[in-house]
Amino acid sequence: MSNYSAGPEIERLIQLLAKLPGLGPRSARRVALHLLKKREALMGPLAEALSEAADKITACSTCGNLDVSDPCAICAAPGRDPSVICVVETVGDIWALERAGAFKGRYHVLGGVLSPLDGVRPDDLNIGRLLERAAAPEITEIVLALNATVDGQTTAHYLSDRLDGLDVTITSLARGVPVGGELDYLDDGTLAAAFKSRRPA
Amino acid sequence: MSNYSAGPEIERLIQLLAKLPGLGPRSARRVALHLLKKREALMGPLAEALSEAADKITACSTCGNLDVSDPCAICAAPGRDPSVICVVETVGDIWALERAGAFKGRYHVLGGVLSPLDGVRPDDLNIGRLLERAAAPEITEIVLALNATVDGQTTAHYLSDRLDGLDVTITSLARGVPVGGELDYLDDGTLAAAFKSRRPA
Ligand SMILES: [Zn+2]
Ligand SMILES: [Zn+2]
Predict the structure, then answer these.
(1) Are residues A82 and A35 in the same domain?
(2) What total number of domains does chain B contain?
(3) Where on this chain are zinc fingers (C4-type) annotated (chains A, B) (predicted)?
(4) Chain A: residue whose CA lies nearest to B49
């Protein structure tokens, strides 16, 4: 191996890019090279967009969605049904459901699922705030839109137990979601159909 | 489709990320979400690294390598053999050859290869500066380390013709480079072996 390095600035950029999901050292180098070739058209704008997003975007203190405002645009929208809360694992699931146009209520982001293997316990998830929100008088339905994975379904059962006794209907997505499937990988039609035929949990 | 958007800041970030090689709209969303989750540890530092690299890094006016200094660290290094120039297509090929420790001379980055299909002609490549450099009295060998593709080999023949008449030996990499192979995809051992057994072009 040579002791040449492309310089600390490029090496650091490659190291950071290699931490992005789906990129390894080799693809990080390709991305770095592409960015260096397109400094004005892509690298500068991307630096600004990242910096602006890192500064401005915050988690909604009500639902956990990411937005430039708190409450987020969905929690603040007057046109959305205030009586239904859709519980999801991640903000990416909100994006997927919104792309599908599947739901017109509000969301709650758990920030993950219970996982004994990964050491994720109830206290690690955004559950306390969900119980508070679910107890509000206007809430009539909680949709548990969790992934159809073992951990997702374990978490849904756990939440059903915790929500038991409240005057709300608890539903989950129809079995249109393939077993083992993750919401963010489904096409819009499947998601919309699964939402429409949601059923009591 | 819903008319909800994740906000102009996030949408712009996703659009820019989707322009990176190997990323599409879906993986760009995953990367954006990952960055937003790791704002302090990854998103901020990446924004800074991009901004710093975009500001500081420039193309070496001698060889075309990318570095924070001009001449670049390789052109300026006193320990490198000043009598051999290795001609490559892109800066990524310099990185690959340096990782392999295959070469101790200096480089020349063409910035691509001749390609009638893509409309790349000799004037579009960094060839004039190569002819100047090759004519200097200290130069004894020019290694044409171009990809073993049709366009790479066409370009090598073209350069051999242009360099003909100069008092330099023109070599190319040994056939250890697989036909159709691109340098940046080879393992270090193959590259080093191909370099060692380079032969007259
Ligand atoms: Zn919200
Ligand atoms: Zn240089």
Answers:
(1) no
(2) 2
(3) 60-75
(4) A13
